[in-house]
C-alpha cells in the first residue's frame, strides 16, 4: 500500500502501488512481423505507430518517476488502447509463425519477488489495467479530504479505480491467469477484492461529506452501513485461503477495523434516530450490537493497524457507551421496555452512493487509428459477414417500407380515394395517361384544327388538278401543232408523230388523273367523317377537359345533415395516412444514413471477444428504427381499416357508385373521341403527304 492518508476524522485510506516490469524491445519484433506478413512498404507506413507504441512501453517501464498522476493515468489508458490494436493485428505466442520473440515480465504488486513471464499480450493488458486502478487509487489519496471538494474528488478517483479493477476482472484476468507463470495480484479474486475496497473508500468519502452537511441521522446511518458492507466484502475476500497469506497483516487489520467501525457508526447514527422517536429499547440493542462489533474487531484483528483508526474506534466506542448509559437510565426510569436480543433485530438499512466507473468508453480502442492500415484476413472476413448481416436488415426493412407504401396506394385506389373527395370539391382530374392523351390532341389543334387541315387538302387538291389540266393543254397544243406542220410541209416534216413522242407522258398523265380522282374521293370520306363525328369529338375541345366530366354532388335531401362530418373525418384520416407515408420516407433515409456511417472495422480490430457477440451488439443499434418502422406499418393498417369504414359511409351518402359509373362512361367517351380524332388525323396527314408528293 502507498503512504497512508487520513481525512478529518483521522481515518486512514489505502492506495495501491503499481506493478513493476522489465525493459522490453517491442518495436523490432512487430516491425519484422509486418515486413514478413505484409511488406516493407507497409512497415514504413506504420512506422509512426510502431514508434508511438515503443515510447508508450518505455514510459510505462519508468514506473511514473517524475510524472504527475494525471499524466500517468493518461499514459496507461493510451497504452492499453494501443495494446488492443496490437492484439488484433499481431499474434504474440510461442508459435513460430507468430511474434514469438516477445516475452512480457511483470512482478507482483504485493509480493515484489514473485513474477510472471508470458508470451501473450493478456499479461501486458492485465498489468496495465492493474496499474491504471493503482494510479486512480493514488490520485484519491492525493486530494485534501479536509474540504468538501477534496472529498468529492477523492471519491471520484476511488470510483474510477474500482472501475479499472472491475474491467480487469471481467475482461482480462482469466486470460492472464492461464498457465503456470502468473501472479496472484491480477487474479479474479484479488482484483475483485480491490474493487470492493475502492468502493468502500469512495462511499467513506461520501459519508464524510454527508456528516459535514449535517444530514439527518437516518441518512448518515444508511450511507455508513453501506461503507461497512463494502469493507466487509473486501474483508471476506482478503481472508480467503488464496489471499490471506498474500497481503501484509496490516491490510487485514485495516479492512477489518474499518468494517467494524462503519457498522458501529451506522448503529450509533441509527440509535440517535431511534432516540428521537423514543424507541429506547431498540436504541440500546443497536448500540450494544455496534459496541460488540468494535470490541470483537479490536480483539481479533492482526497487529499493525494505523493508530488513527484505533483512535477513531476508541472515540466512537466512548460516544456509544455514553449514549447507551443514558438510554439505559431513561429506560429504567421512564420507558421500562424490554431490550430485544441482537438476533431479533432487522438488518440495518443501507444506501449505496457509489458504483464502479464504466470504463468501456474510456478504454474503447475502436476510435483510435493506430495500425489502421493493417487488416488481417480474419477481420476482413468478419467485416464481410457483418456487412452481409446489415444488408439483410436494410433490405428487409426497405422491402417492408416499400410494401407499406404500395399497400396504401392499392387500397386507396380500390376505394377511389382521394379522387372521390377531390371530385366533391371540384378538384378532380382525369387519370394521368388519359389526360396526357387529351393534352396531346389539344396541342396539335384538336377537332377544331381539323377544319384548317381539311382546307389545306382542298387547296392542294385544286393546285394539283390545275397542274394536271395545264399539262394536258400543253400536250394537246403540241399535238395540234404537229398535225398542222405535217399537213403544211408534207414529207418534209420528218419529226416523229406527236402521238408517238408523247405516249408515255400521256399514260403517266392518265395515271395521275386516276390517283387524283381517287384522292378526291378519300377527301370526301374524311370530310364526311369529320362532320359525322364532330359532336363526339367536340368534347376534346373543352378547356379544361375536366369540365366535361360529371360532378359529385351532395344529396338533394339529408336526414341527419352529417355529410360535412363524414367528409371531414375521411379527409382527416387521409391526411394522417399521408403523414405516415412521409414518416416512412424519413425512416428510410435515416436507415440509409445509419448504414452509411456504420463502420465497425475499428471495433473488429480492437475486439478480443466473440465476433458474433459484437455483431449482435452492433446490429441491435438498428432495433429502435426497425421498431419504429413496424409501429408505422401497424398504425397504417389500423388507419386503412378506419378509412375503409369511413369511405363506405361516404359512398352511401353521396351515391358514389352511380357517380363512378357516369364518370367511367365519360372516360370511355373521351377515349373513343381520341381514337376517332387520331384516325381522322392520320388520314388527313396521309392526304397532305400524297398531294405534296404528287405535286
UniProtKB/TrEMBL annotation:
InterPro entries: ALIX_V_dom, BRO1_dom, BRO1_sf. Its main location: cytoplasm. Gene3D superfamilies: alix/aip1 in complex with the ypdl late domain, alix/aip1 like domains. Residues 12-417 form the BRO1 domain. Keywords: Coiled coil, Cytoplasm, Endosome. It comes from the Eukaryota. The keyword RNA-binding does not apply. Residues 570-597 form a coiled coil. It is found in: Cytoplasm; Endosome. Signal peptide: none annotated. Pfam families: ALIX_LYPXL_bnd (PF13949), BRO1 (PF03097). GO terms for cellular component: endosome. GO terms for biological process: protein transport to vacuole involved in ubiquitin-dependent protein catabolic process via the multivesicular body sorting pathway. This is BRO1 domain-containing protein.
Amino acid at each position: 500500500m502507498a503512504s497512508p492518508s487520513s481525512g478529518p476524522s483521522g481515518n486512514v485510506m489505502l492506495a495501491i502501488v503499481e506493478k513493476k516490469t522489465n525493459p522490453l524491445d517491442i518495436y523490432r519484433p512487430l516491425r519484422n512481423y509486418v515486413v514478413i506478413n505484409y511488406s516493407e512498404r507497409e512497415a514504413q507506413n506504420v512506422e509512426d505507430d510502431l514508434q508511438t507504441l515503443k515510447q508508450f512501453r518505455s514510459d510505462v517501464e519508468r514506473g511514473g518517476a517524475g510524472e504527475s498522476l494525471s499524466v500517468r493515468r493518461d499514459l496507461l489508458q493510451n497504452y492499453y488502447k494501443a495494446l488492443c490494436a496490437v492484439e488484433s493485428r499481431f499474434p504474440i505466442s510461442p508459435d513460430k509463425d507468430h511474434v514469438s520473440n516477445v516475452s512480457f515480465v511483470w512482478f507482483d504488486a504485493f509480493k515484489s519477488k514473485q513474477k510472471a513471464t508470458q508470451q501473450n499480450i493478456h499479461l501486458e493488458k492485465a498489468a496495465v489495467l492493474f496499474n491504471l486502478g493503482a494510479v486512480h487509487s493514488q490520485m484519491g489519496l492525493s486530494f485534501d479530504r479536509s474540504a468538501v471538494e477534496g472529498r468529492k474528488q477523492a471519491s471520484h478517483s476511488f470510483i474510477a479505480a474500482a472501475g479499472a479493477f472491475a474491467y480487469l476482472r471481467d475482461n482480462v484476468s482469466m486470460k492472464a491467469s492461464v498457465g503456470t507463470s502468473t501472479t496472484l495480484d491480477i487474479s479474479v479474486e484479488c482484483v475483485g477484492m480491490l474493487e470492493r475496497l475502492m468502493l468502500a473508500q469512495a462511499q467513506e468519502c461520501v459519508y464524510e461529506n454527508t456528516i459535514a452537511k449535517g444530514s439527518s441521522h437516518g441518512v448518515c446511518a444508511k450511507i455508513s452501513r453501506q461503507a461497512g458492507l463494502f469493507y466487509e466484502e473486501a474483508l471476506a475476500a482478503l481472508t480467503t485461503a488464496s489471499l490471506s497469506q498474500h497481503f501484509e497483516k496490516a491490510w487485514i487489520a485495516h479492512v477489518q477495523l474499518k468494517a467494524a467501525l462503519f457498522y458501529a457508526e451506522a448503529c450509533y447514527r441509527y440509535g440517535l434516530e431511534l432516540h428521537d422517536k423514543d424507541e429506547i429499547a431498540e436504541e440500546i440493542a443497536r448500540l450494544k450490537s455496534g459496541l460488540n462489533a468494535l470490541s470483537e474487531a479490536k480483539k481479533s484483528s492482526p497487529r499493525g493497524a494505523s493508530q488513527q483508526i484505533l483512535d477513531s474506534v476508541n472515540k466512537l466506542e466512548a460516544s456509544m457507551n455514553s449514549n447507551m448509559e443514558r438510554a439505559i437510565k431513561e429506560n429504567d426510569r421512564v420507558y421500562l421496555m424490554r431490550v430485544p436480543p441482537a438476533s431479533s433485530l432487522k438488518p440495518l438499512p443501507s444506501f449505496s452512493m457509489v458504483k464502479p466507473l464504466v470504463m468501456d468508453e474510456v478504454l474503447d480502442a475502436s476510435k483510435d487509428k493506430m495500425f489502421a492500415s493493417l487488416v488481417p484476413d480474419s477481420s476482413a472476413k468478419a467485416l464481410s459477414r457483418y456487412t452481409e448481416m446489415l444488408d439483410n436488415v436494410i433490405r428487409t426493412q426497405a422491402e417492408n417500407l416499400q410494401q407499406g407504401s404500395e399497400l396504401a396506394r392499392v387500397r386507396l385506389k380500390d376505394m377511389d380515394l382521394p379522387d372521390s373527395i377531390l371530385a366533391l370539391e371540384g378538384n378532380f382530374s382525369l387519370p394521368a395517361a388519359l389526360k396526357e392523351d387529351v393534352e396531346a390532341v389539344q396541342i396539335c389543334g384538336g377537332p377544331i384544327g381539323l377544319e384548317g387541315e381539311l382546307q389545306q387538302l382542298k387547296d392542294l387538291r385544286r393546285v394539283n388538278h390545275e397542274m394536271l389540266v395545264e399539262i394536258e393543254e400543253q400536250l394537246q397544243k403540241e399535238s395540234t401543232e404537229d398535225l398542222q406542220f405535217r399537213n403544211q410541209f408534207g414529207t418534209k416534216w420528218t419529226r416523229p408523230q406527236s402521238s408517238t413522242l408523247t405516249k408515255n407522258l400521256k399514260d403517266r398523265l392518265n395515271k395521275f388523273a386516276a390517283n387524283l380522282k381517287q384522292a378526291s374521293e378519300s377527301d370526301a370520306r374524311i370530310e364526311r367523317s369529320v362532320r359525322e363525328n364532330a359532336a363526339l369529338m367536340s368534347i376534346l375541345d373543352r378547356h379544361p377537359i375536366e369540365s366535361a366530366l360529371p360532378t359529385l354532388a351532395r344529396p338533394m335531401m339529408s336526414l341527419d345533415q352529417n355529410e360535412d362530418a363524414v367528409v371531414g373525418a375521411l379527409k382527416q384520416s387521409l391526411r394522417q395516412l399521408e403523414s405516415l407515408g412521409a414518416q416512412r420516407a424519413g425512416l428510410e433515409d435515416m436507415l440509409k444514413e445509419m448504414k452509411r456511417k456504420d463502420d465497425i472495422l475499428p471495433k473488429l480490430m480492437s475486439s478480443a471477444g466473440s465476433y458474433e457477440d459484437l455483431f449482435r451488439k452492433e446490429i441491435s443499434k438498428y432495433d429502435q428504427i426497425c421498431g419504429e418502422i413496424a409501429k408505422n406499418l401497424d398504425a397504417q393498417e389500423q388507419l386503412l381499416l378506419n378509412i375503409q369504414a369511413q369511405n363506405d359511409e361516404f359512398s352511401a351518402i353521396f351515391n358514389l357508385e352511380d357517380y363512378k359509373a357516369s364518370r367511367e362512361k365519360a372516360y370511355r367517351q373521351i377515349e373513343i373521341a381520341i381514337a376517332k380524332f387520331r384516325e381522322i388525323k392520320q388520314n388527313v396527314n396521309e392526304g397532305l403527304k400524297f398531294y405534296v408528293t404528287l405535286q
